[in-house]
Amino acid sequence: MRETPYYSYVVGELPEGCKYCVRGEKLVLFVTGVCPRNCFYCPLSPWRRKDVVYANERPVKSVKDIIEEAKIQDARGAGVTGGDPLARLSRTIEYIKALKEEFGKKFHIHLYTTGILADEKALQKLYDAGLDEIRFHPDLFEPNSKFLQREIENMKKAFDFSWDVGGEVPAVPGFGDRIKWFASLLDNMGGRFLNINELEFSETNLRNLLTRGYRPISDESSAIKGSLELGLEILEWGEKNTSLNYHLCTAKLKDAVQLRNRLIRMAKNVARPYMEITEDGTLRFGIAEYEDLEELYELLVEEAGVPEEWLYINWEKKRIEMPVEVAEELADAIEGDVKFYIVEEYPTWDRVEVERIPLN
Ligand code: SF4
């Protein structure tokens, strides 16, 4: 077992889909929130557990939105997720085909599924559409699961196709034996890898996790106590007892590496000339807020002498955007009700603001 430069751990080789993901090159394609299961650790918010489609943070109305988002990210592949994408199979097929058509065969696509709906016909369609890698997430953590047997039977069928078959499960403390059982099964079937995620809480699953006795490792982290340790134990065990490749994907990897790399790729494509790209991939620029934006614009151009190319009226956010230095100078020079700030935003579709510093 070795530690990777991305704060994760690996036995053997990193799964192909993960190689793209850590570089921030994977578009996250959320095909539907519909899922036949109801895992107690499901992190999806109630508004995502519906039949909605997102490409990264962008709500999707048509395939065009997906292609546009992939271009902005300069994506080299996609991870098809949900819910269970197979709960909306024809939509999933349509999107995989469209991405392969637009970006070529090498655009690497992997898909997560419970396996419940992965019958021969569905698998054949996915394979024909060009899917490169399929990851099974069976119902290991529910005693007497009514799904598990069917999921495992369907997983067997996936080995009739020449794509990478692997597993992906969270490291839920207390369930080490179940995960090892699944790893052995996958190994005996000829599986390629098992990706284990450090368990994290979200607003949605927090109550469920607390009720079952799970606790976050600290006030600053969403990772669950004991999950990383369990993941490491399984990797050590797996190295000795199976020939699978393993990857233990940590909360830190998702946050500090994968997200940051994706933001940097996106920032390069969406930054306007007056925006700085920070080393975290956020956009930093100055803004002025005032009730009457037209009046403010005129004041800045005609009275303060700011060149028009340095100013951008953002009607949606009701503000004028500009380089940081210009906002700093204007904040000193202009008196009255105009408020100047330096802001930092994600370059994502939803443009989450992560920092705001008042200048006057
Ligand atoms: S399989 Fe995934 S999407 Fe479905 S309920 Fe479980 S965690 Fe949520």
Automatic annotation (TrEMBL):
SUPFAM superfamilies: Radical SAM enzymes (SSF102114)
GO molecular function, one term: metal ion binding
Alphabetical UniProt keywords: Iron, Iron-sulfur, Metal-binding, S-adenosyl-L-methionine
Annotated InterPro entries: Aldolase_TIM, DUF8061, MJ0021-like, rSAM, rSAM_sf
Listed transmembrane segments: none
Pfam families listed in its UniProt record: DUF8061, Radical_SAM
Radical SAM core domain segment(s): 20-240
PANTHER family: BIOTIN SYNTHASE-RELATED PROTEIN, RADICAL SAM SUPERFAMILY, GLYCYL-RADICAL ENZYME ACTIVATING ENZYME MJ0021-RELATED
Protein name (Swiss-Prot/TrEMBL): Fe-S protein, radical SAM family
Organism field: Thermococcus chitonophagus
